[in-house]
Amino acid sequence: MSPEHALHLLYEMVRIRRFEEKCVELYSAMKIRGFLHLYIGEEAVAAGVLQALRPNDAVIATYREHGHALARGVSAQRIMAEMFGKMEGCSRGRGGSMHLFDAATHFYGGNAIVGGGLPIATGLALAAKMQQQERIVCCFFGEGAVAEGAFHESMNLAALWRLPVMFICENNLYAMGTALSRSESLTDISAKAAAYKVTAEAVDGMDVMAVDAAAARAAASVRTTGGPYLLECRTYRFRAHSMFDPELYRPKSEVEEWKKRDPIPLLISSMRREGLIDDREIERIESSVAAEVDDAVAFAEAGSLEPPKELTRFVYSDRRSE
Amino acid sequence: MSPEHALHLLYEMVRIRRFEEKCVELYSAMKIRGFLHLYIGEEAVAAGVLQALRPNDAVIATYREHGHALARGVSAQRIMAEMFGKMEGCSRGRGGSMHLFDAATHFYGGNAIVGGGLPIATGLALAAKMQQQERIVCCFFGEGAVAEGAFHESMNLAALWRLPVMFICENNLYAMGTALSRSESLTDISAKAAAYKVTAEAVDGMDVMAVDAAAARAAASVRTTGGPYLLECRTYRFRAHSMFDPELYRPKSEVEEWKKRDPIPLLISSMRREGLIDDREIERIESSVAAEVDDAVAFAEAGSLEPPKELTRFVYSDRRSE
Amino acid sequence: MSRVTYREAVRQGIREALLKDPRVFLMGEDVGAYGGCYAVSKGLLDEFGADRIRDTPLSESGFVGAGIGAALGGMRPIVEIMTVNFSLLALDQIMNTAATYLHMSGGQFNVPVVIRMATGAGRQLAAQHAHSLEGLYAHIPGLKVLTPATLEDARGMLGTALQDPDPVLIFEHCNLYNMEGELVEDAGPVEISHARVAREGKDVTIISYSASLFKALEASNKLASDGMDCEVIDLRTLRPLDSETILGSIRKTHRAVIVDEGWRTGSISAEISARIMENGFYDLDAPVQRVCSEEVPIPYAKHLEDAALPQAEKIIRSVRAMITGKAA
Amino acid sequence: MSRVTYREAVRQGIREALLKDPRVFLMGEDVGAYGGCYAVSKGLLDEFGADRIRDTPLSESGFVGAGIGAALGGMRPIVEIMTVNFSLLALDQIMNTAATYLHMSGGQFNVPVVIRMATGAGRQLAAQHAHSLEGLYAHIPGLKVLTPATLEDARGMLGTALQDPDPVLIFEHCNLYNMEGELVEDAGPVEISHARVAREGKDVTIISYSASLFKALEASNKLASDGMDCEVIDLRTLRPLDSETILGSIRKTHRAVIVDEGWRTGSISAEISARIMENGFYDLDAPVQRVCSEEVPIPYAKHLEDAALPQAEKIIRSVRAMITGKAA
Ligand SMILES: Cc1ncc(C[n+]2csc(CCOP(=O)(O)OP(=O)(O)O)c2C)c(N)n1
Ligand SMILES: Cc1ncc(C[n+]2csc(CCOP(=O)(O)OP(=O)(O)O)c2C)c(N)n1
Ligand SMILES: [Mg+2]
Ligand SMILES: [Mg+2]
């Protein structure tokens, strides 16, 4: 891996981390409301996976999607404005944290029905295939979603019809308070792909280099074969499920244990070992990120509220279809 | 296998066959209406599997369930009366061919939502387990149902909670007009059980002895381990999907090929080879069955129609729960 | 003009759309090799191939979701669900995704998907195949709900739906597929924002849609011979409802009976009655009445099924009682 | 008497049922280790163990179906669905199976399952977490639909529901969980067949349920200071609807406004209006009006969410217009 690429991965992870740390503050300050699901601890997954995508590829994510939106290139300003409920937000204030959308980067949201994004991703891939577009679809979901019928139906459809979907399972071991072993009879998620004849792989989701490499393999496979791929990223959520979660279901020690594998320090030490980074560089990253985050907050603060008379706009399209 | 048991299996298959042949006549005579799904060709499955059940076990079947109801011991009279829409029918005329029910034999229907029976069977098994009953639940469904989310969710729940369900997949290669290879990326149904850590087996569904033996193994496993088992019975439907099906989707020659493996002649020849049966015995079976079928028709003819003022009865229970 | 069935009219609509727009395709269970469970798509597989007449596995949630995704991705899918009861398996995708996408994304992503399904009772298919849930779907903002009752609409509404940038649901009553009539060969898309006065009259307005329309017309004919002159409205579109045509008619007749195959409580007929209450109250000479399905899962036995459904006889009784002022 | 929240009242109801009847158990996503997504079942896992406080995987259709099956098998399951929007994933099981079993089987198999879920908006949870679909469920024969607004009902309706031989759905408004009040310690099951007059009045009847009830009461208080005396009805049960209490009140007040957090078109408020039309028309001095949610997927931004929901202000405007005879 090139030093530049490693730096870029680090930069992306730090961006996500600092952006979300700011979100927590803003939630306490009541600037952000509703459900807020933090990605902290899992940054290596979005940062690593999204390297494998090209501009025309499509992304479908969940309600825990700040990281994916940021890594995909959705502007931090517009994401923050969205969480402030402002018109300038990437969903005009209608979506909030769980429903970030961005047409320019083919970021199809932001789906808060667990498993609900998988059929949509399958359909986007079908459209790509039928139109012979050079496009793959990248679909993120948690290990909890694997128990939903939507997982089963989508994996089968994508495999049966040979559709270019990269299914990325973010296995952070918990679905809210439900440990994987209490939601799946077979806890090896990637092994389930065999039931659909889908190629699969599991990767250490705390190691961004490993994720980056695995995603590259996955994307290459999807692009070459035209068929789906399941990549299971084994990761961990450091924070509560959402801001309302008292975390009764896991010992603090378990969280502490995982924090030793925090993807950011992990990458930094490996880069240090190879002489790819020093403190100055880290500071530069931090200050650049801090500026971006501050700028995003300022943008959000300065934003305006959609006039209530526009409430029912976008229930239906203003225009007829072409 | 004892000669008596072989004879019994033959008797059950012939009963189902002749009963349904009569149904076809009665459909043409407009005595039976609605959808009528014939089991002809698949008799070895119901006849074989249901031998493994005890009186207190529960059965869930599909809309193609005449065979299961008969083999389970639901009276042919009441089944026929049901299809005539009579009050004396096993569902008081409200269900018809697709919705046969019988509390006495724990026959829980007759479910016409493809895959809809699997969660119900899982719940029945949960109730049995929580009440420490000596009961297993036998759930029939077609290979088409395997694509539904309900299959996935139920297999996982039953395995995760270790519930006594015998899942019987009747793989007749078609879901209406959709061939297995066009509905499943992995066509080996029993292999899918591995995704749930469920024990599974596939058996020749035209060989009633083999089905009988496999079902005995499956039931024994469920009774001993308390956990689920998936038995795939590979069979074939000789008739159209329902009375409306022009059968455009499969060549006649394929049907003819499979008819060479008709489970009834197959059993008869094997019994003959072993000297377990002769023509007289076969005639005796046929005439006894004919009498039962005639009697069922007479019973149905003589039945009465529920007064329309009773229409909304059974929308809610007449009584409070105990 | 040529003589066609409702089934053929729908097929013509689909065929025309496939010919005209390469983005259009049909997907659903058994639309291809089987020819469609109600034989609507028979022959289309041969003409258009398996890519565009796409058989799906039994996965209602999955393939409806895939249809939504394909629409987002630039295609114009026609998704067929065999029967309205099975559509419940896909309702999450329809309500939580298709109907919300445009709004949730602040106007960025519209979902031009068309979802067709068979609805209604009358074929002794019992409690899991015979309901009328189009009224339920009409409750959902973000959707349009069409209920073609005529050959023109059976054919033309599909084209119009495909031109719509947003999700459109089309409910085809299973008892209409065999209905025959004359249809001009080049009948094209039809407008979908207005109800239609199917029969003019001055004494009472009967408001109906889909297969019930014909029961309303049958009742009107019988009532005419008794000197009662009914105006009959075919709603055509349940969402958005054309209140104006309804209210306009009531301003003339001052009386209304709504005929709806949905279960009475919470049916679309309740909505119509409520709108008349709100906007036509002072025009009324008598309270609006409803003739709906009985509140029962549809039973198999013919006589019970008949008793469960709105019938011309019940409509006649309701109209007569209203006009004579005696309780029905 | 002790001071409890609505959340605690529900928990007490569950706890009492678990203590009293060994057939009762609670199942759903995160009811156990997490303590319930709205903390309703906190502590119950420790007291009753993982068998009876049963966490489920994310499989709404599967575990609701399993609840139905367990009820058929002799248990008395309380199935919790986190939020009404997710219940759509299980609607097939609820409508096609739970609601039809007894009838389809000719009276042989009843389904004593209780399904609880959080409903409603007001917490900025946007378009996939904030709808009010209890009116939609009230359309379905075979179900009972309860909407407790008070602490007594939050606690007591559960016990009553568990005694019911048939499927009962309970909708708990997410904005009520923190509501506090006094509740007698041994408050038991409550009857569920009658609506309740929450405030007596003579000028106009405001009909409401669930969290909207409190907006109706707030509006009434403000209107009282202007000399307008509102009667407020808490429907409590949406299916079967207690029409008698509604009609009785209207015979007194001759005016009615219905307040409903459901989307207006096809809402339960439409049904109520239609019933008043049919049975109370001649008692009315003015057409019945509805104050409902705007027909929009609930938006995230606070000011837009507020604008989408029925508010006391809108109720006041509607009542005032009705009484003064000027358009709202
Ligand atoms: C269909 C559905 N059921 C339940 C929920 C509530 N819920 C939101 S997130 C979540 C846990 C999902 O876990 P997982 O898929 O592992 O993703 P993670 O949150 O761990 O990233 C649940 C139960 C939901 N949003 N949608
Ligand atoms: C949820 C649902 N979707 C579609 C149908 C229509 N349908 C009835 S039977 C059938 C085929 C089922 O095939 P399979 O499960 O293999 O059973 P088989 O009929 O072959 O016994 C279909 C599509 C249905 N009844 N339920
Ligand atoms: Mg997780
Ligand atoms: Mg089959």
Keywords:
heterotetramer, A: 322 residues, alpha/beta, two-stranded antiparallel ribbon, 8 strands, C: 328 residues, 7-stranded mixed sheet, 12 helices, 14 strands, globular, binds thiamine diphosphate, binds magnesium ion
What is this structure's SSE topology?
The complex is a heterotetramer, with two copies of chain A (322 residues) and two copies of chain C (328 residues).
Chain A: H1 3-28, H2 43-49, E1 58-61, H3 66-72, H4 76-83, E2 107-110, H5 117-130, E3 137-142, H6 149-160, E4 165-171, E5 174-175, E6 178-179, E7 199-204, H7 208-225, E8 229-234, H8 252-259, H9 263-273, H10 279-302
Parallel strand pairs in A: 1-2, 1-3, 3-4, 4-8, 7-8
Antiparallel strand pairs in A: 5-6
Helix pairs in contact in A: 1-2, 1-3, 1-9, 1-10, 2-7, 4-10, 5-6
Chain C: E1 2-5, H1 6-20, E2 24-28, H2 44-52, E3 53-55, H3 60-72, E4 76-83, H4 91-98, H5 101-104, E5 114-119, H6 134-137, E6 144-146, H7 151-163, E7 168-173, E8 180-183, E9 196-199, E10 204-208, H8 212-225, E11 230-234, E12 237-239, H9 243-253, E13 256-263, H10 268-280, E14 289-293, H11 302-308, H12 312-324
Parallel strand pairs in C: 2-3, 2-4, 4-5, 5-7, 6-7, 10-11, 10-13, 13-14
Antiparallel strand pairs in C: 1-8, 6-12, 9-11
Helix pairs in contact in C: 1-7, 3-4, 8-12, 9-10
Bound molecules: thiamine diphosphate (TPP) (2 copies) and magnesium ion (2 copies).
One thiamine diphosphate sits between chains B (64, 112-114, 142-145, 170, 172, 174-176) and C (29, 58, 60, 82, 86, 89).
Characterise the protein shown here:
- The complex is a heterotetramer, with 2 copies of chain A (322 residues) and 2 copies of chain C (328 residues).
- Chain A has 322 residues and is of the alpha/beta class.
- Helices cover 42% and strands 11% of the residues of chain A.
- Chain A has helices at residues 3-28, 43-49, 66-72, 76-83, 117-130, 149-160, 208-225, 252-259, 263-273, 279-302, and strands at residues 58-61, 107-110, 137-142, 165-171, 174-175, 178-179, 199-204, 229-234.
- In chain A, strands 2-1-3-4-8-7 form a 6-stranded parallel β-sheet, sandwiched between helices. A two-stranded antiparallel ribbon of chain A has the order 5-6.
- In chain A, strand 3 (137-142), helix 6 and strand 4 (165-171) form a beta-alpha-beta unit.
- The longest helix of chain A is centred in the first third of the chain and has 26 residues, at 3-28.
- Chain C has 12 helices and 14 strands.
- In chain C, helix 3 packs parallel to helix 4 and helix 9 (243-253) packs across helix 10 (268-280).
- The radius of gyration of chain C is 20 Å and the shape is globular.
- The termini of chain C are far apart.
- The model of chain C has no long low-confidence stretch (mean pLDDT 97).
- At the A-C interface, strand 2, helix 5 and helix 6 of A face helix 3, helix 4 and helix 5 of C.
- The complex binds thiamine diphosphate (2 copies) and magnesium ion (MG) (2 copies).
- The site of one magnesium ion has 6 residues of chain B, from strand 5.
